[in-house]
Amino acid sequence: MTETSHDTLLDLHSVRVLVMAADGPTLAREGDANTFLSAAWEHDASMLAIPVSRLDASFFQLSTGLAGAVLQKFVNYRIQLAVVGDVSAWSASSKSLHDFIVEANRGRSTWFVADLDELSRRLAV
After folding, report:
1. CA geometry: angle at 86 spanning 63 and 56, to 5°?
2. Model confidence over 40-86: pLDDT tens digits?
3. For residue 39, which of 89, 12, 5, 72 has the smallest C-alpha distance?
4. Higher model confidence: residue 6 or residue 53?
5. How far apart are the first and last CA of the chain?
6. Dihedral sign computed on CA atoms, order 101, 39, 52, 96
7. Residue 111 DSSP symbol
8. Contact between 22 and 54 (Cβ < 8 Å)
9. Contacts 24+ apart (CB under 8 A), 95-103
10. pLDDT of 5 over the 60 cut
11. What is the pTM of this model?
12. Is the pLDDT of residue 29 over 50?
């Protein structure tokens, strides 16, 4: 495990995962995704784990289009994304967000996980 500022580089089941620190700039606009992607490239990570605390509330409001645009950008650049933390409050208040999360978790490019242990279990499969 290598520490870089407050971000942590992990090797989970042969996947190089950059876990972003819980504090720091938030992803509030589509262009902010570039900062996060750059960090992944800098550390040669194939997956980025972003804590819920680093995502602006608008990310969880599908009508803003932010989540869709950001996830598409990650797919285009072939960086897997894990949103780490409790999203139940947002998911409970929006059926479309709930369905979006369920569908994302069926794939391989984006996952919503409660914690790093759950991420590790998913990567083990």
Report:
1. 40
2. 999 999 999 999 999 999 999 999 999 999 999 999 999 999 999 99
3. 5
4. 53
5. 21
6. negative
7. E
8. yes
9. 96/62, 97/60, 97/61, 97/62, 100/62, 100/67
10. no
11. 0.92
12. yes
The torsion angle over the Cα atoms of residues 37, 87, 84 and 41, rounded to 10 degrees, is 0
Confidence of residue 125 (pLDDT cuts 50, 70, 90): confident
Structure tokens at 44: 């040669």
The C-alpha angle with vertex 92 and arms to 87 and 97, in degrees rounded to 5, equals: 70
Q: Tell me how many degrees the CA angle 8-9-14 measures, rounded to the nearest 5.
A: 145
**For residue range 86-105, what is the model confidence (pLDDT) as tens digits?**
999 999 999 999 999 999 99
Instruction: Assign domain 2-119 to its CATH architecture.
Output: 2-Layer Sandwich (3.30)
**Among candidate residues 19, 18, 13, the one with its CA nearest the CA of residue 123:** 13
| Phi then psi dihedrals of residue 105, to 5 deg | -70, -15
The yes-or-no verdict on residue 2 having pLDDT over 90 is: no
Please give the Cα distance from 40 to 10 (Å, whole number): 12
Q: Tell me the C-alpha distance between 24 and 79, whole Å.
A: 20
